[in-house]
Amino acid sequence: MKKLWLKIGLSFFILFFIVMVIVGFFSGELMKSVYLHMKESQLQDDAKILLTTTKLEDVDLDQDADKIQSDLKPLEDKIDARITVIDRTGHVVADTKEDPHSLGSHMDRPEVQEVLKQGKEVGIATRKSSTLGYSMLYVAVPITHNGVTDGVLRISISLESVEKAVHQLWLSLTLIFGLALVFIGFISAVIARRITRPVNEIIDVSMDLANNRYYSRITGKTSGELQDLSLSVNQLAQSLEKQMQEIELNQQRLSGIVQNLVSGVMLIDQRKLIVMTNPMIEQIIGEKDLTGKAYYEVLKSFALTQLVDQCLEQKVFQQEEITIYFPRELILDANVSPILSKTGNITGVILLLHDITEIRRLENVRSEFVANVSHELKTPVTALKGFAETLLDGAMYDEALLKKFLTIIKEESDRLHRLIMDILELSRIEQKHVSMNLEQVDVEDVVITTMDTVRSMALEKGIQLVPPNLTSPVIIQAERDRLQQILINLISNAIVYTPQDGTVSVGVTENEANDTIAITVTDNGIGIPVKDIDRIFERFYRVDRARSRHSGGTGLGLSIVKHIVESCGGQIQVESIEGSGTTFTVTLPK
Length: 590
Hints:
single chain, alpha+beta, Beta-Lactamase, 5-stranded antiparallel sheet, 16 helices, ATP-binding, transferase, phosphoprotein phosphatase activity, HisK_dim/P_sf
């Protein structure tokens, strides 16, 4: 494509060229006409002077022909023109170039006819001479005698000189016009460049804006309307740049919000293709690179697909709690919102998936907890009420029965107290309201102190308590009471579920690689069935409900232990073989 300045410059040049050709043509023709007119006037004056000097009006043209020829003959070399004398019949009387006797009648010559027949004072004609062979200019004037036209005096000159002069004129005009065209072409190019430079810059800036290069500006100096246009384009570019920065910032914010939402987001267009997703929905669905795929190929749940279809068809918000089973079982709160245009047509939908699996699980745990607490509280309260009513009905007057019932009431009250305290303790631990007062603790010393605390319980069943065999003290940063609470629960459980004359041993090992210690509590008791191992840390869960209740346990001990260990940054594991024994391993950071 040609450049704009070249188009404008070429247009100017062509316009000037056409104008100058027309002007030159008319100027040349005008100057040629003026030149010929001047020659005609000159020849007319020369003829009139010649009439006077040769006194042709005083002689008889036919009788004095030889005299006239002899008088004109000397003028041949003096005057650069042909002189011819013609009588009224058209006969040539004298001629300075040719023998008059050899010339025929000249009555048919236009200039002669204008004088002799039309009576004009001058006759003028231009033609090619039949005798001389080149173009001539003829001027004829009448020769009068006593008021009567007796003949014609004709003077003619060659137009070769005129044509040479005109040709020279044309050469001069062509040279002048050529130089003028070169100058005009240069000026046109300069002016065109000056005019189009800001236009080209405006075009370049406009193209930059169209290609998202909003920093581009017009820097050239302009004036008039172009200056106003440049300012308008710069203001437009500045406004676009500011708006795009705001749009990009908003997009970044929106993208950051969507990408970090704990809910899955999927944008689906009217063609049922996925336009946008966030990492959470990819995690829920178990598939990546979803953009461009059809939603019904990605969503592996018929209920979820049907919910989106209903939103697309009905153009109204849809909400439902849906359970999916692939890639894993989840309970989802699915919300599908239509995106409508101003005309009411649906342009897409937004699918929001909230994973409420944990919420539902916690609700179930809460329900079970309330049921279990109610059940656990009901037993001692029922016993207290029953024995109290029995005593009030008259049994209190039997001293032995009174003592027995009061003992049972005290035991049930103690059990109720332990249950309430464990519930409060577990609640404080779960809500992280328990402050840790860390100190340097000798683990072996805490183990031995704990064993002394539960030794009477072990002696009743003849169970041997085996302390750790350490060659050097093991010191950790911990809270002594919390560590002792962990050990009391684990060792007490081991004693409860170990038969008579069994063994409960505690081991302590250091791991220098990851700077931790491991405390193990091992017994050779009844063990834990495989089906129950994953649930033993749940609140109120008991493997042997009758035996644990008889032992006075609340069912919260292991749950408390797990929460304390995790609050200390550690972890607890269990290994058990039914009928052979159980080992609990507590790993704590040093």
